[in-house]
Write a structure and sequence with these properties.
Elements lengths: L2 H5 L17 E5 L4 H13 L2 E6 L5 H9 L4 E4 L5 H11 L3 E4 L6 H6 L1 H21 L7 E7 L26 H20 L2 E7 L2 E2 L8 H13 L6 E3 L5 E2 L2 E2 H13 L5 E4 L5 E2 H11 L9 E3 L17 H6 L8 H17 L2
Parallel strand pairs: 1-2, 1-4, 2-3, 4-5, 5-6, 6-11, 7-10, 8-13
Antiparallel strand pairs: 9-12
Length: 349
C-alpha cells in the first residue's frame, strides 16, 4: 500500500488511547467531603458513571450523598482495609480513581496521629496495591490528593516565588507527614510499575461545602450567625498564619485535568497569593457590615497547635501552562460565596 493511501487511513486506536470526553467509570474515595462533592457534580455532568467509596455500614453521609447525587453507586469500603479496596476496584472496574479520602484536619491529626497515618498514609498504599493486584496497572489512572502541608513552611528561601513541584518538603504535623508518605508511595508506584499516577499538591482550597471544623468555614459560619444575632463570639486560634487560599471547585477541575493529561506527573495548584487568617476574618465581617470585628473574636488556647506553619504560598505556573488550568474565583469572591451561603443557611432555620 502506498504512503498516500496510508495517509488517508485513520490509525486504529490502541488499547491505552485516552479520550477525555468519553464516558468513564470513576471510583472516588472521600466522596462525602468537600472535594468529593464538587468532583461528583462535575463527573455526573460529564456523563461518567461514578462510584463512591463510603466507610461504614450506617454512615449518615451515605444517605445525604444518595439524596444529592442519586446517580452515584455507593460501595462500602475503608482505606485501612485492603480487602474492601480490592472488592471496590473489582466492582467499579474504574478508568479513573480519585483518592480524596484522608484524615484531613491538621489539628485533629495531632490528637490522633496513629489513625491519621493509617488512613492518610498507609491507605494510599492499600489503594494502589488494590489496583495492582487486580491487574489494572495499564487500565486505571490514579489521582493522589497530596497537600501543601507537606512543605511545612520551612526552607522558604525564595520569598514571593512560592513552593513549586521541586521545592523541599518539611511537614510540621502528623497530617503533613502521613500525606508525604502517601505522595512518595504514589510516585514510587508510578516509577516502579508504570502506573498512571498523578499527584495534585493542592494549597488551601475552601468553599461552601467545607466542614464546620475547618477555620475558614468556622469563620464564615460564625460571622453569619453573629450578624443575625444568633451568636456572640467567634473563637479562633492564631490569626497570624498566612495561607494561599482558593475555591475548591476550581481546584477539583484541576484534579480532573491531571488525569486527562497525556502523561502522569505532579502539579501544584495554588493562587500564588497569600493572606493571613486575620485578613480572612476582617473580610468576612466586612461583608456583613461589621468593622469592629475584634470585639467579636476571642482566642481559644485549645485551638493553638503544637507546631504551626507560618506561611504557605504556591506557584501554580506548571499547571497553568501544561494543563491550561485557571482559577475563576479570587480571594474576595471565595469569602463572599461562603458568607452568602452561611447567611442563607442560618436564615432558613
Amino acid at each position: 500500500m502506498s504512503a498516500g493511501m496510508l495517509a488517508g487511513i485513520e490509525a486504529a486506536p490502541t488499547p491505552n488511547e485516552w479520550n477525555p470526553v468519553a464516558p468513564k467509570n470513576v471510583l472516588v474515595s472521600g466522596i462525602t467531603g468537600q472535594d468529593g462533592g464538587h468532583l461528583a457534580e462535575q463527573l455526573i455532568a460529564q456523563g461518567d458513571r461514578v462510584f463512591g467509596l463510603v466507610r461504614g455500614q450506617h454512615n449518615p453521609r451515605k444517605q445525604l450523598l444518595e439524596l444529592e447525587f442519586p446517580g452515584i453507586t455507593v460501595i462500602e469500603g475503608d482505606l485501612t482495609d485492603p480487602s474492601s479496596l480490592i472488592r471496590a476496584v473489582e466492582i467499579a472496574d474504574p478508568d479513573e480513581i480519585y483518592n480524596l479520602g484522608a484524615v484531613s484536619h491538621v489539628g485533629y491529626s495531632f490528637k490522633n496521629p496513629t489513625l491519621t497515618e493509617e488512613v492518610s498514609g498507609k491507605g494510599v498504599l492499600n489503594f494502589l496495591e488494590a489496583v495492582r493486584l487486580t491487574g489494572r496497572t495499564d487500565k486505571t489512572r490514579f489521582y493522589q490528593a497530596s497537600t501543601s502541608e507537606m512543605f511545612g513552611g520551612l526552607d522558604y528561601n525564595r520569598p514571593g516565588a512560592g513552593y513549586d513541584e521541586e521545592s523541599l518538603f518539611h511537614p510540621r504535623s502528623p497530617y503533613g507527614v502521613a500525606k508525604l508518605y502517601g505522595h512518595w508511595i504514589a510516585r514510587n508506584y508510578r516509577e516502579s510499575y508504570g502506573m498512571f499516577v498523578s499527584c495534585g499538591i493542592l494549597f488551601n482550597h475552601e468553599g461552601e461545602r467545607r466542614g464546620l471544623e475547618f477555620v475558614t468555614r468556622k469563620i464564615t459560619h460564625g460571622v453569619a450567625r453573629i450578624s443575625l444575632g444568633l451568636q456572640d463570639k467567634l473563637l479562633l486560634g492564631d490569626l497570624w498564619p498566612k495561607r494561599d487560599w482558593g475555591y475548591a471547585g476550581d481546584y477539583v477541575d484541576g484534579m480532573w485535568k491531571m488525569l486527562q493529561h497525556h502523561e502522569p506527573d505532579d502539579f501544584v495548584l495554588a493562587s500564588g497569593q497569600t493572606h493571613s487568617v486575620e485578613d480572612f476574618v476582617r473580610q468576612a465581617f466586612a461583608l456583613v457590615g461589621i468593622e469592629n470585628w475584634r470585639d467579636f473574636v476571642e482566642q481559644d488556647p485549645a485551638m493553638i497547635r503544637p507546631a504551626e506553619v507560618d506561611i504557605l504560598l504556591g506557584n501554580p505556573s506548571k499547571a497553568e501552562s501544561t494543563l491550561q488550568w485557571e482559577r475563576k474565583v479570587n480571594f474576595e469572591g471565595l469569602i463572599k460565596r461562603m458568607v452568602d451561603h452561611d447567611l442563607a443557611l442560618e436564615s432558613s432555620k
